[in-house]
Fold this sequence. Notes:
heterotrimer, A: alpha/beta, eight-stranded mixed beta sheet, 9 strands, B: Rossmann fold, 2 domains, seven-stranded mixed beta sheet, six-stranded mixed beta sheet, 12 helices
Amino acid sequence: MSTQDWKFTAKDIAAKPNLFLSGHRACAGCGPATVLRLIMKATRGPTIVTQATGCMEIVGSIYPYTSWALPWIHTAFENAAANASGIEAALKIMRKKGKIKDEHIDVIALAGDGGTCDIGLQALSGAVERGHDFLFVLYDNEGYMNTGIQRSSSTPVGAATTTSPAGTIIPGKLEKKKPITEIMLAHGLEYVATATPYYWKDLLIKVRKGLEVEGPAFLHVFAPCPRGWRSEPCKTMEYSKLSVESCVFPLWEAVHGNRQLSAPSKVIALAPQKKKFLKDYLEGQGRFRHLFTPQNRPILDEIQQSIDVRWQKLLQQCQLSQL
Amino acid sequence: MTPLQIKQITLAMNGDEAIAYAVKQCDVDVVAAYPITPQTIIVEKFSEYVANGEAQTQYVCTESEHSAITACLAAGAAGARTFTASASAGLALMHEMLFVTSGARVPVVMAVANRALSAPLNIHGDHSDSMAERDSGWIQIYAENAQEAYDTIIQAFKIAEDIDISLPILIGVDGFTISHTLERVDTLPDDAVKEFVGERCFPMVLTHEGKTVPFRLDPANPLTMGPNALQNYYYEFKRQQTEGLNVAYKKIQEVNSEYAKLSGRCYGNGLIDTYQLDDAQIAIVVIGSTAGTLKAIVDKLRGQGIRAGILRIRTFRPFPVEDIKNALRNVKAVAVMDKCMSPGGFGAPVFTELRNALYDVSPRPIIVNYIFGLGGRDSSPPELCRIYDDLARIAKLGHAEKTVTYFGLRE
Amino acid sequence: MSKEKTWKDVSIAGVPSKSSIGFLTGDWKTYMPIHDSEKCIRCLVCAMLCPEGAIHFRPEHNRVEFNLNFCKGCGICANECPAKAIVMKMPEEEE
């Protein structure tokens, strides 16, 4: 099936039943909850989902209730990709032996930034190196929100968390966000992409592309967390949008390592005046409040500068890939 | 088929090879493993089978033992028959997932070539690794030699996959002593093994859709595995899990008898294996290959008119309390040999467990503990004979001067 | 405790026996969405972005419906609606 055949209009998507069901216990305004619901709307047929421990795992599976309308398994925090490996291997051989129906079953692994970039990185690296056919989706809310908003390697520089608090001497997290997509690209994956739920159609198409790839695919979904970011629940999708407009989280996809900007970011590349400032994105997020003081001004400038450098580098990477 | 009808082939194999051979015959769907001494030969040999098309198995070379057990658990959840093998640090790295596997009620079969735990680093045989996983909810059976390792792997799938058990099972073999020692192993034909093990069955489970379906990940019958259970339900699930081990207590005996009919080989009642114990006044209780060495000693002592016996605990989980009580009812002094320590505890795991089991027995034998063989230290027959000498003295005196002895240690 | 199942009756390994559709979260909210069908342009952005899956489109009636049994009152729908057809109000304000 080609992309043109996918009917990802709002009306079609709205008509598809939810596979991540209502009645889950995510906080009001939860970005990852929308992400999960949308991802499941992009599935193309029989699918098995495995999920790492984390908020989104907890909220959908509190016994005796489940929010999962499709087969779903959670085993631990650091091993979503190993779960996917086992499931994929099992399906492959059982299908070959005639122990199950001869049909393709998609495997999706879901994990937060802890279960992907930190504790889950080894299993992820191993699974993609082995080439299992599965889609790994990172929903990145930039911290260990489930355990009470601690720092992860995916927390951006400057952000205050409960383990990187904004103190009198240390102004929040000092270290930069781990470049997880670059790490995945270095593994030679056929499909790596970034997405964020405000651009829901872009997200759905990327999920579908990731599923259609034979072998591992990686999708990095930026998912604002109002509780952890100390932002207003109603602003979740606004931050999702601003993250792209400010080039904090540009949207792109790399097929066979050839990187292309996706439409929402391409618009900014073509019309740089549309690029929003970092502070438009940071303002209103309580986790960055301490940066808006005169003495921390240089930190803001520094972050803006590093975002600009990264954006320029990305533009070069995308232009190079077009040659 | 009966043992007479089946033509068994005798092969020269070490314990690891015997295990790999058995796994090959059991129609295993997924093997996920990470190499570690002294288990390595199992995965090497099995890789050869896969590479040569002799095993219809998806072999996943994971990047760690944690992922190996995870992949087996998840593959098992998807309906596959799964096997893994590990030892020592590898088993320790699996620790978290061992509890998850048993709690998730997925019947993974794992061979453990028992080895010491660091530090200091030591690759040789003792039971520290699997004894540390005593409470992980796995069935634990220990073999005495390569032949039993082969036979027990075949039995393991049948036990673990029983729908009323549905629990993972660990088969222990002494590192190097069994894993690397070449022995003659009688093997069953492939089809006889396949028939004996049968196809994997699944317990039925009620899902959120109100359907009762097989307990596996299947898009046709969606269900949720590995949920959260809070204060109101967690305890019920853990109690239910224990019941699986209670069922295994009977099943292990049944499978042992059934296998005896097929192969002509049985190991006691499957739970415990005794030697010259019926009229024994002194007895050694031990796990694993040491029982083989002790048999020669007992034969010698019997020749001298000393009523010595052996109780080998084959199944450590579920712990065969009644069988042990019954087997030791006439014994005056018992030495429990542990290839493991419980630092800071009163004796080592098998000792504490056995002594606890015999607390209510009257008359109660005197029970002492010999910690031995740590880090692969060898115990020669003359040395082991001294334990029976000690027991004879204890039985005569009516009390033990020392309850816990570090045996074979330079003091 | 009494109406909850015993260890003999629960499903193996905690397989949930209920769908969360039976677990209503509507009472979590402080504000509730008030939808103006006249202003609504049926773009369904609200339905796409709702974390709860509580907004449904009924093509047969060309209507957007809010399931207040699940709506947690986050206000994303109101914030994102390009036609400003949704406002968040306290239930008493609405009365």
